[in-house]
Structures are given as C-alpha cells and as structure tokens.
Design a protein that fits this description.
Layout: E1 7-12, E2 31-38, E3 44-52, E4 58-65, E5 69-74, E6 90-108, E7 115-120, E8 122-123
Antiparallel strand pairs: 1-6, 1-8, 2-5, 2-6, 3-4, 3-6, 6-7
Protein name: Sensory rhodopsin transducer
Length: 124
C-alpha cells in the first residue's frame, strides 16, 4: 500500500452542542462530528482533548480508527472521562499515533430548516 495520507495533530477551533429535544430521532439530533479517515495499513489510536472558555480541558477521550477505515465520531456520544456539556462553546485537539485526515461536520436541527456545515480541521 502507498504511504498513508494525513497528519497526526488536528484542531477544530469551533464546537457547540445544543440541548437535545427528547422527540428527535438520532438522524435529526443536532450534533458535532469529527470524521476520521485512516488510509494506512495500521490502526490509528486517537486521543481527543476538549477545551472550554471558562474551565480546564476535558479528556483525553480515546478512540481507535481501524486500518483503511473511517470513523464518524459524534461529540454528543463521548462519555469517558465525562460528557461534553450542552449549550457550551468548546474546541478540540485531535492527536493520533498514525496519520489521519479529520473533517468537522455540524448538523443544527433546532429549526425546521436544518443547517449542515462541514469543513476540514486545521492540520497542526
């Protein structure tokens, strides 16, 4: 296989999880997602640290992206070491022991007219 693409450090400077409505299906729940792509031949061990405006960082959150696979990780689903609080601004640093590509996606479903935003994270 050719050399894997990507970097080992990525930053997403923007993050926000609105409070959830109880009646929404998983597909229509507002969320922030880090789409992680591992094109390499070895699993990537990923560590995520979340930064806040007015408190110490949370994490590290740990996930594995299998070789030659993608993982769409919703920040809403992070639980260990603690859930990310709703209605709170945050940013994240994603560090991997293998090169990966990171894309940030947000679905805002607070209004009937849904909004979807997607952009590459900053490779550091």
């Amino acid at each position: 296989m050719s050399e894997p693409i990507g970097k080992t450090r990525w930053a997403i400077a923007e993050g926000y999880l609105p409070a959830q409505r109880g009646d929404a299906s998983r597909q229509l729940v507002s969320h922030e997602t880090a789409c992680l792509l591992n094109t390499g031949d070895e699993d990537a061990n990923v560590r995520i640290t979340v930064y806040f405006v007015d408190r110490e960082p949370a994490g590290p959150y740990r996930v594995t992206v299998p070789a030659r696979r993608t993982l769409h990780l919703r920040f809403n689903d992070l639980r260990e070491p603690e859930p990310i609080p709703p209605d709170t601004d945050y940013a994240s640093l994603i560090e991997s022991d293998r090169p990966i590509v990171v894309q940030h996606t947000r679905l805002d479903a607070r209004q009937a007219e849904l909004a979807l935003l997607s952009t590459l994270a900053y490779a550091g």
